[in-house]
Amino acid sequence: MALPLNQTEKKIKILTEKSDLLSIQEWNNYCSSLKNFFTTTNADNSLIHGYDIEFSNNYDMMIVDDKFLFGDVAYIESKYIDDNVGRQLHEYYLDLTNEVSQNSLSFHDSKLFQQGFLDNHLYALPFEKDFHLLYYRNINTNINDLDMGTISWDDILSIKSGSSSTTSSYPLSVAYGNDDELLETFMEYVQGKVDISGRNNINFENLYNESSSNIYSSFKKFVVSTNPTETDINKLTDITIENAYNALKKDESLFFKGKASHFSYLTKSDVNNNISAKLPPKNTSVLTTRYLVINSSSLIDKKVLVEVALQLTSKEIQLYKAEQFGKIPTFDLAQKSSDTSIQTYSEKNSDISGFIEKLNPMYLKDIFSNKYSAPLLEIRALLPEDIRKYVKDGNDQSLSNVLENTKNLLMDKVGVAHLPTILLYVPIIIFALFAIVVIILIFKYRNHPYLKIFSPNFCILSILGITLNIISPLFRMEINSISKCKFIYVYETIYTDLTLFPMVAVTYRIYTIYHNKSKDIKNKNLNRRIYTLFIVGLLLMIIYSACSSFLVLKFFFQANGTIDTYRQPLCTYNSGGILEWIERRINEAIYIVMIFLIIVTGRISKKFGEFKYIYCMFFIGIMEYGFNYILSILPSNKYFGFYLLTIVINSILNSLLIYYLVGSRLIYCIKHPNDSEPYHIEELVNNNKTQTQIQTMEE
Predict the structure, then answer these.
(1) What distance in Å separates the CA atoms of residue 282 and residue 149, rounded to the nearest whole number?
(2) pLDDT score at 532
(3) Which residues in the chain come in under a pLDDT of 50?
(4) Domains (ranges, CATH) in the chain?
(5) Left (φ > 0), alpha (ψ -120 to 50) or beta: where does 394 sit?
(6) How far apart are the first and last CA of the chain?
């Protein structure tokens, strides 16, 4: 977040998005006039006297719309948004809960005011609002008498000019090149077909079930019919708000779909004195609200910033903006009988007030609001281009997939049947049973000299760790609670260390025997010491992991993929980077120690197959990182099939690792159950190594 360049300037910098105003000159006039009004009206305010405001990229405050405000917040967060924008953006906003009197803000529309809260904390103050109107030339008598509450968007296409002086070539001009405009037009059009306003989430299924193709094709026909470049649909992205407005000015279209904030400019200027406006069909429009937030990292005194924010969102300045620029205040018009300021606004702006009272508002946050919905910022960033792409290529399935992804996770989608879920269990169970059989056989032949020298008890523990790894996808596939995330974190530590530590224990045992200069080695004492170190080390790592998981780390869900592909939730966390770093360094240190012990024991390690431990741990590390990477790049088409294939391959590789570790020795034991000396011990004696030490290694 940018900070003010210099506190001594007494200048408060405000960041705002691109304006909806129809010209750059109008925007510049708006900024200049607002600054002058702020300075004049606060000349006697001792707290902020001498401060100026400036609209800048280097900011102390920011004006954002409701689609951006808390747009990153969702139960299943977006990795796409995290990578491109960040997460928990509200942590950069100053918490106003205890800084302002909420009673003094009661003039705001209650719903708009409540949207400035997150988790009962106030971060944003309503700044202004806006909605759509259809502008037309009032000399068209056919339009003047239209009851917009009863007609549909499709009915707009059949309206003819009622004036011989107009030669409009198409019915409606829309700024389809603007992503927000395209998205909102699509939602308003669909609302005319089925109620998706958020009051009934089930109705949203009509956008990705069998009936969705009818809605899509109808919308495409509507867009093509309202597009001034319908002969070249690929130029759809070129239609700006100015292009759309100019089409009305030149009598090329009957209607121009603009904003209510354009009303004053379009209907009251001398050049536009024959332009009128109506609400969109069904009196329904997406309602957009802009909010003012304060940068919590600003160097300016917090009290000054709060006071400036209150002034910039006050009734007085909202009335001024309405009078000078036609901006729509965030007033609750139901209070006009008890609040003279609101009454004054209603009387001076009777047309807009009438529109507001008739309006059936749509809120995009309500439309895309269920437990597993994608964050609105991701929807806003990606869905418009998907709609635009559909209008060009007509691919119903692609758009249906995107719209379903906005609401549902991968395993909840209509196209993912229960049979593939069952198929996931089959390979895991098969390979887990294979590992269990190997464990049983190792236990059975644990006293065979060809296997005993390989420390069968520790070998069993390593294979048990690999087995837990094989079955881990069963826990990861459908994660639905933070508690499960915490469990999985500890579970991963258990199977990782349960695989690694026994290998280190065996290596250390052989190293100790090999380098012990005494001929009288107490094997039981050595084993007891190794088992004690193993148990203590494993318990310490598990306790460390459990404390980190349940007491320190803040887990949250983040979707792998996007609405364009699929959304598969993954457990992730923050505020714990140092803890994970410590755990990884410990494991890496153990790797290094094990490699060192194996190298210094030389030919004995090679004879006993200890180098297999190095290879096993090396491949386990590669498999872990490779598996996570592959999951992140699986194609969206037939994702589950590819995911299943990945699980099978991972299970096969783990099983091959088990075979590589102990398979040949186990097969020899099965074929030669009564052998007492499977190789010549004397070959191992070198460098003053005694028979007693070799016997100890066998035990």
Answers:
(1) 4
(2) 87
(3) 1-8, 164, 519-520, 678-699
(4) 418-690 (1.20.1070.10)
(5) left
(6) 65
